């Protein structure tokens, strides 16, 4: 979106002291939790797996947008996390429980986790820290409140009536709970624990859902974890995703819980990554009381195991927000077993890992700590039960291990026949995991280059050696001798050599704050540049750097402040026209500065409640062209730059493009093949209202030709 600041180099050395905890609770009896569905990230079919080497996602479950922004800068970026996953950001039912966000009431991006403006600012801040953002998207259903009510942002609703969005005809007719998971139709058209099940085969419903996803994409998100995908047919998912703009940019990961049922995860491979729940179940078997050696023997756990997704399609986790409650997997309560399973997942080479990070609970319905007004209190590690597993040294530093070893083969495998294993990742890394009670003290054979390393499970390089765990010397023969204690691990990699020299490729990035500068487009310039300096630093080279569209009437640029607190700036159109505040330049402070007509304010001009994201038109165009573009303007706005924007294949003979209308009633458009052939309706252009709309042989009619 507005800008993609420099990606922070992979970590490998991030440091952080974190509380780990002892499991205090025993898993209680497990009743079906309110949610079968669960979360995580991915999207581009051509590149389905999370792009490496930064393929690890931190799932900051129930974290507020402001706290995620802080964490991106302070921890996730420096540690090398490629993605952060948010909880569902749309308006939801009210209540203190954990699952309120899984009961949508409208698609306003307003929740107890923060406002739309805070969400947008979080995305921008995470991008500046080199972390992409994935939003958990709940699209199978709306609320499960039979009595209806009022949502977080004030929207009134009934069980099957969401004024202005969905009415009764937009829901499946089953209207009772799913009872038989062996019946495909029932699973996909009846209610999941009373959650009103959307008729996702309806073109209107698909357009509404796509409008929501498009709105999140317009705020800069990089992908989605799609909730409850088993309960949406593969054809309906294709219909929805076909209406999503800029699909190739978005990473998608789908929740399809594997079970002995007719609906299988493999049905959804065409859409993106899928969570392989079987992986997490095996980790529980191994680390949760069995032995762990069988995870690495033979071909080892992964693609070759019966019923497992191929590596390129698999997203993996030790637990997620559902399974930590229903006992299907390990959870933070399992102490060392859990932490070692995380180490294994990050060190092994199957799938793209997600690290779940939520809060402690004794009642499985319990939500996070709330303020008196119902907002979630910004999480702080060590307070209110937040586990901060994503920032625990042994886990966070293994994200650096994963980055440093990405793409290497499993080498130098060893195990003791039960609960101690070790393996290398080519000449980049080596890990030993001891789930047994006694210390394993031996000489380990690695393929690492000779040198002095730190055990990143407990420490990282410092100028004089290692912060903890001592210095481990690997000889010219690749061997080293060190004990690995009971329920402990040891991991070395080439990005974490002792003393930080000769192999530590990227020093800890400087965490700092940033300022987002907004500039009004009221001058009518085609291009907007900001020429600036941070604090007393040097100026950018004139004419400065480009600003990107932010919202209607505004462009923006986020500037890293480092340790400074101010920016001095002037603006120009790139062609010699300047606004330098009458020669004085603009003095800007704070995290947001908006400049319009010579005045500076600190309010984010893009934070107003959005136009309804579902006011869009989906244009279907009948053509035999291999490539089709739509050249258009919304209402009386500006035209796209010719030849316009590409349309996506819909069904046979049709191309499609969904266009947001904002407050306008329609668009004016013409079509072309990108090579000079145009259909401009005989020179009159086409007037197209909100959709779906079909354009065929010079006529415009309402409807979806592919439904
Ligand atoms: Ca459904």
Give the terminus-to-terminus CA distance. Answer: 31 Å
| Uncertain ranges | 1-48, 501-512, 609-614
Small molecules (ligands, ions, cofactors) in the structure:
calcium ion
By CATH, the topology of the largest domain is TIM Barrel
Look at the structure and give the CATH class of the largest domain: Alpha Beta
The CATH architecture of the largest domain is Alpha-Beta Barrel
Our estimate of the beta-strand percent is 25-35%
Structural category is alpha+beta
Strand order of the largest sheet: 1-2-3-6-7-8-9-10
Looking at CATH, the homologous superfamily of the largest domain is Glycosidases
Shape: globular
Account of the protein in words:
The chain is built from 9 helices and 40 strands. By secondary structure, it is an alpha+beta fold. The structure holds calcium ion. Calcium ion (CA) binds at residues 140, 188-189, 197, 200, 231-232.
Quick summary:
Its cofactor is Ca(2+). With 707 residues, the chain is of the alpha+beta class.
Write the layout of secondary structure elements.
Layout: E1 57-60, H1 65-79, E2 83-86, H2 116-128, E3 132-137, E4 149-150, E5 156-157, H3 184-189, H4 203-218, E6 223-226, H5 234-241, E7 251-254, E8 273-275, H6 277-287, E9 314-317, H7 323-326, H8 336-347, E10 352-357, H9 393-405, E11 410-415, E12 420-425, E13 429-434, E14 440-445, E15 451-454, E16 461-462, E17 465-466, E18 471-474, E19 479-484, E20 488-493, E21 513-520, E22 529-534, E23 545-546, E24 548-551, E25 554-562, E26 566-572, E27 578-579, E28 586-589, E29 592-596, E30 599-601, E31 616-622, E32 629-634, E33 645-646, E34 648-649, E35 654-660, E36 666-672, E37 678-679, E38 686-689, E39 693-696, E40 699-702
Parallel strand pairs: 1-2, 1-10, 2-3, 3-6, 6-7, 7-8, 8-9, 9-10, 21-29, 31-39
Antiparallel strand pairs: 4-5, 11-12, 12-13, 13-20, 14-19, 15-18, 16-17, 21-25, 22-23, 22-26, 24-25, 26-27, 26-28, 29-30, 31-35, 32-33, 32-36, 34-35, 36-37, 36-38, 39-40
Helix pairs in contact: 1-2, 4-5, 8-9
